[in-house]
């Protein structure tokens, strides 16, 4: 299997000796070998690195370089969330430790290193994506989302960190504000979309733990692709409306007949366009059947999810335009933002 790590990108280096000293103080019985660090190639938001000492390995997560949006990239919060969820949800990595900015100049946390296959725009070399594999992967994604939503959050400390009452109204208002703070260009239809969401806020009766960034390339599968062995990027996790989580999952679940800009907004289309993957409607029907939840107002949740994705991309584009990141992948995100706003409006008109 191809390596999922790369040499560290210029400007994103870490202080290896400071990290090694800190790890040795905090974690007992580490091997004697020196710490080596490599960077993971995937991810567009937080920076993730592989830590290795002899046969011990772990993953370090830290915020991106430059100023970050308020309340975004909260490493301590993500560490605490994983501490609460990992005992109940096997795919969540176990967190080992959290450090404030005194160690390397930014906060970070260290967690379990999972091994397996991450699917993004291509299947690994040597694997033929047969229809039954694609169908099975779809079903696994549905089942794990239902499983996450069925955890009794009242038995965790998430009750102290979250406020499920009025969740969707706060979300709509909050993401509109984030969008307005990160605006760079005039985007046709954004005012119309904002007004529609404010007038049509929906809220499910039963809150649950939500991942809120649930997508195929945040999951890791075993070599046979029959089981999810890892689920990553828990920074947006909270207790809220499970249908908002489903909506977000569907905003990433691209299908073959989607418009080109939606399919290739970040470059190449994801593997969900491969024959055999469930359509969004099939995914939602399976979710409804297994979870027993009523999806009557899903068009609101899907509309909001496309807007939320547009805001995330706009925040990244804003950082690129201000010179806070030089990653060339972000140079054309403005076109994707515009496309997502248009598609959100189109979704809002569906019955």
Automatic annotation (TrEMBL):
Spell out the InterPro entries in the cross-references.
ACAD10-like, ACAD10_11_N, Aminoglycoside_PTrfase, Kinase-like_dom_sf
Query: Molecular function terms in GO for this entry?
Result: transferase activity
Tell me which positions the record assigns to the signal sequence. Answer: none
Is Zinc-finger among the key words of this record? no
Give UniProt keywords alphabetically: Transferase
What are the residue boundaries of the Aminoglycoside phosphotransferase domain, all occurrences included? 36-262
The protein's name: Predicted aminoglycoside phosphotransferase
- Which organism is the protein's source? Mesobacillus selenatarsenatis (strain DSM 18680 / JCM 14380 / FERM P-15431 / SF-1)
């Amino acid at each position: 299997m191809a390596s999922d790590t790369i040499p560290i990108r210029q400007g994103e280096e870490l202080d290896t000796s400071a990290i090694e000293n800190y790890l040795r103080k905090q974690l007992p019985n580490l091997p004697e070998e020196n710490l080596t660090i490599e960077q993971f190639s995937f991810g567009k938001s937080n920076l993730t690195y592989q830590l290795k000492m002899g046969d011990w390995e772990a993953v370090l997560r830290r915020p991106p370089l430059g100023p970050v949006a308020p309340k975004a990239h909260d490493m301590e919060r993500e560490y605490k969330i994983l501490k609460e969820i990992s005992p109940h949800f096997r795919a969540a990595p176990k967190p080992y430790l959290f450090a404030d900015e005194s160690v390397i100049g930014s906060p970070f946390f260290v967690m379990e290193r999972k091994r397996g296959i991450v699917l993004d725009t291509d299947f690994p070399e040597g694997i033929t994506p047969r229809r039954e594999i694609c169908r099975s992967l779809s079903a696994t994604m549905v089942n794990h989302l239902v499983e996450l939503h069925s955890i009794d959050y009242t038995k965790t400390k998430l009750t102290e960190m979250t406020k499920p009452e009025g969740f969707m109204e706060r979300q709509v208002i909050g993401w509109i504000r984030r969008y307005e703070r990160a605006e760079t260009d005039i985007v046709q239809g954004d005012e119309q979309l904002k007004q529609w969401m404010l007038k049509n806020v929906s809220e499910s009766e039963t809150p649950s733990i939500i991942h809120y960034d649930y997508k195929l390339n945040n999951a890791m599968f075993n070599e046979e692709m029959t089981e999810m062995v890892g689920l990553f990027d828990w920074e947006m996790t909270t207790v809220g409306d499970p249908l908002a989580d489903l909506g977000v999952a569907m905003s990433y679940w691209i299908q073959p007949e989607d418009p080109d800009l939606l399919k290739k907004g970040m470059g190449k289309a994801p593997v969900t366009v491969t024959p055999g993957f469930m359509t969004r409607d099939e995914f939602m029907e399976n979710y409804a059947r297994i979870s027993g939840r009523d999806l009557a107002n899903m068009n609101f949740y899907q509309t909001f999810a496309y807007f939320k994705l547009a805001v995330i991309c706009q925040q990244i584009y804003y950082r690129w335009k201000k010179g806070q990141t030089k990653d060339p992948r972000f140079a054309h995100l403005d076109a994707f933002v515009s496309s997502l706003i248009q598609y959100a409006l189109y979704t809002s008109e569906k019955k």
